[in-house]
Give the backbone structure.
Amino acid sequence: MLKAKLGRIQLKTPLVLASGILGTNAQIMKRCIDNGAGAVTLKSIGPIERNGHNNPTVLAFDSGLINAVGLPTPGYLNMDEEWEEINRIIKEPIIASVYGSSVEEYCRIIKYISKFNPSIIELNVSCPNKKAGMAFGKNAELVSELIREVKKCTKLPIMPKLTPNCDNISEIAKACEKAGADMIAAINTAGPGMIIDIETRKPLLKYKTGGISGPAIKPIAIRCVYEIYESVKIPILGIGGISNGRDAIEMLMAGASAVGIGSAVYYDNIEVFNKINREIEEWLKNNKIKSIKDIIGAAR
Ligand code: DHB
């Protein structure tokens, strides 16, 4: 009943661990799979080792999280052993997220990691916490050129992850499809936002600003996925503020083929995948719907 498909990739459940959340080592991603995730995404892999920003990097507020982690990465050349462990213990689809600051950098990383054969390559073109991080994702021409070049470097499916912080996400999605993207992930964090501590009169995050995630951004994510679904034929991985079964159904109805789970892991721990799966199943049963695919895009 919970089986799903993202393009040609078969998923045992529609839930995907979103990038940046626990996707840092094989053991912990395996725990997500064992607890009901249908696929897992690694923390974005970059060109060279980076520690990221100084603490505090993640804070909770009333209705979500704000973060400026700063794209910490071991660097793509320093992950061979982790990849071997990932491929040894994880049998469900792996999504490798990649970031770079030039087309050449993305291509170099993707060529190298393709030998480890992840199921999908996610292009992070939408990080709010590094200068120029978002340049590609906000500009249809830049993202098209990136996708066309990246497609020459690998046979693996390419999935750009789009930012909600653009004028027209449909236009960006259409440009991605035309350039050869196999699927689209939407959305990355919104904002950037800021939280000020009124006692010290200073921004709380060390980096001052950060990307917003969690329940606060769910309606933005739903609107973006709905608009993308209306504009392209390629499948969508819907991400943003999903924390229970009803949220996940809403995201599927907006047009997502599978649903990313990120901040909800912070609130409900790794068991959140099983919890959301149970709630989806119960809703489907109560509404006499046999399969996830019968509700994809139902809101259109
Ligand atoms: C970071 C990267 C992202 O893509 C994002 O949406 C938020 C934070 C980071 O590592 O800082």
In short: The chain has a mean pLDDT of 96. The pocket of 3,4-dihydroxybenzoic acid is lined by residues 20, 67-71, 124, 126-129, 188-189, 211 (CB under 6 Å). The chain has nine helices and 16 strands. The first strand starts at residue 4 and ends at 6.
